[in-house]
Amino acid sequence: MSAALPEEPRPSPARGRPNDPAALAEVRRLIETSALSYRAIAKVTGVPRTTISRHVLEGGWIRPKGADAPPQSAEGERRMRRGLLAERVLRAAEDLVQRVELDPTATPAAFARAVRVLALAQRLDRPGNARSRVSRAQRVRVR
């Protein structure tokens, strides 16, 4: 799904002059069908990045899924998955508390347990929280 880059980039039009409609059509095609960055699309088409950005916003052009996210390292992907997991755990804990609150037969112990689960999930989701039991000093030594 990658677009072939031409040998030489097209020159951008003089400042203040409108872009070629064919070039803008090519920009739209690349925006909506490829994962190329704005910078790469600007090199291919000769349309400035700022113009591309403006047309994307004004025209409502939609990027393919994952096109706006830069490729991540294995550690970055792990952190992203961990963050998504924390969100799911937090939602599940909130649902549990809500179910216990709405259940007329729930005991105080069940409610207390649901609140403890929610507190643990919130602690897991806290920004900047080291989600590992290994201390920072231990992690630094291992590397």
In whole angstroms, how far apart are the ends? Answer: 38 Å
General form: elongated
Q: Name the helicity range.
A: 55-70%
Percentage of β-strand residues: under 5%
- Poorly predicted tracts of residues: none
**Secondary structural class:** mainly alpha
Secondary structure tally, helices: 6
Give me the Rg, rounded.
Answer: 25 Å
Mean pLDDT: 76
Element string (H = helix, E = strand): HHHHHH
Q: How many individual β-strands?
A: 0
Specify the biggest β-sheet. none
Topology:
Blueprint: H1 21-33, H2 38-45, H3 49-59, H4 74-102, H5 108-125, H6 136-142
Summarize the structure.
The chain is an all-alpha fold and 143 residues long. It is built from 6 helices and no strands. 60% of the residues lie in helices and 0% in strands.
What does this structure look like?
With 143 residues, this protein is mainly alpha-helical. The mean pLDDT is 76. It is 60% helix and 0% strand. The radius of gyration is 25 Å and the shape is elongated. It has six helices and no strands.
Descriptors:
mainly alpha, elongated
